[in-house]
Amino acid sequence: MFKEIYKGDFDGIAVGRVSRNQDFTKALGFYHNEYQIQYIFGGQRNFFYEGACYRMVPGTITIIDKAKIAKTNIIGGSSHDRLLIELKESFIAPMCAMFGIDAKSFFSKYHGVYQVGEDDLIQEVLANIERLATGKKDKMTAGRIKLEILRLFLDADRFERRKLGKLDDVGVKTHIEKQKRVHQVADYIAENYDKISSVTVLAEHFYMSNAYLCRIFKEVTNFTISEYINLYRIAASRQYLMDESMSMAEIANRLGYDSLTYFERVFKKQMTITPLQYRKSILKGKVNIV
């Protein structure tokens, strides 16, 4: 199911909300590779950047620097309800400069995922943006939306206090041994996803039985081990697919897959298109991370 709740372009700022129970190739956004702000109302997605995985869950806001899009992946999360705000640099930068804010520096610094579900100011700003985007439009609507966005920039310190820890670190400080062991495994997968040949080998590395490792990993992360490994592999495949000199077989082998067919099947399950279709879309400039 794909339900586009609303969508509008407001003079360099696009606002849209979509509810879907699987990832489709149909994009929600208006623009290609511009600054983005995403807010999750329901479901979840997975945000990958610099080898770390962060979970986008209800109440989180994700700030995306367009300069880091090539190294960022947002995948998984087959069911989610999210708000997407896209901001053209040519429109947002001059407005921010009027208030002494460098838009480029803001997005570079705060590129990441933040838990803001209990932040009254941010919730008010998002509610106002939705109200303006869905209500009766007039010549002042675009300006009012820009002013609401500006409120986020002017009080940016609140993001620093609410940044999420990477998935690999969440819960490590607890005294529950099961959680500690699982996050050790998650950290190992993040560093070695291309070298792990089987769950059995992984279990042996951590001196656990297959059954026990699989059970506690699912309990703590809500992923099977294979799903978690594949999330990292498919996230990494995006970089390889940008290199036209690499064949699909070479990419599959680099990621740790023994079979090209299996790589293609896993990729299509995650991204809803084949690796070849994805590469062609990149060359045509039709793929973004929304």
From TrEMBL:
Residues 183-281 form the HTH araC/xylS-type domain. SUPFAM superfamilies: Homeodomain-like. GO terms for molecular function: DNA-binding transcription factor activity; sequence-specific DNA binding. The keyword Lyase does not apply. Gene3D superfamilies: Homeodomain-like. Keywords: DNA-binding, Transcription, Transcription regulation. The keyword Disulfide bond does not apply. This is AraC-type DNA-binding protein.
